[in-house]
Design goal:
By secondary structure, the chain is α+β, with helices and mostly antiparallel strands. About 50% of the residues lie in helices and about 15% in strands. It has 3 helices and 6 strands. A hairpin with a 4-residue loop joins strand 4 and strand 5. The longest helix is centred in the middle third of the chain and has 65 residues.
């Protein structure tokens, strides 16, 4: 048995087969496959962040539109009593002075026009079928010359559309057929 301090005179194969090491050469940080995986992960995170930002932008736009519509409805609903009061004043003025009534009717039309510009068109059609989405029945009458469930008079103006109703029109309709 050889002494552990004794050195073999044969060349060490492991040392001989090694390439010389350049002291300034830096080892590669990661194999290319690992770099591609890292790049794919970063790109995925970037796409997700961009999608989140886009979703946030769309959500904020929807919420802003809803808030704007709610404020528009609030402002328009405050204006409804003015329109109703002007209608009552026009009715009274017609009994007293036709010229005064015409002037007040003009002002009432301006008020109705303001509601229309806010996105709430008037509902005042007569001769149309009753639509519970935009009409409120105030009275029912029997009329043989008009089809059943037809609006024959508008007692109170309504404003809006079926999708966005400010106030239903108060109407008189014909009785439903039996």
């Amino acid at each position: 048995m050889e002494h552990p301090d004794a050195r073999s005179t044969e060349p060490d194969e492991d040392l001989a087969s090694r390439e010389p090491v350049d002291p300034e050469e830096k080892p590669s940080p990661a194999p290319p496959n690992e770099l591609e995986l890292r790049l794919a992960e970063v790109e995925d995170r970037w796409h997700r962040a961009a999608a989140d930002l886009d979703n946030t932008r769309k959500r904020a736009a929807r919420e802003l539109a809803l808030a704007r519509d709610a404020e528009r409805a609030r402002a328009a609903s405050v204006f409804l009593p003015v329109v109703d009061g002007l209608q009552d004043a026009v009715s009274y003025a017609k009994q007293v002075n036709e010229g005064l009534a015409e002037g007040m009717e003009s002002i009432r039309e301006q008020a109705v026009g303001a509601l229309e510009r806010l996105g709430y068109p008037r509902i005042d059609e007569v001769g149309v079928p009753f639509d519970p989405r935009i009409h409120e029945v105030l009275s029912v009458v029997e009329r043989g010359d008009v089809p059943p469930r037809t609006v024959v008079a508008v007692a109170r103006l309504g404003f809006g559309t079926p999708e966005r109703l400010l106030r239903p029109a108060g109407v008189v309709v014909t009785a439903a057929g039996e």
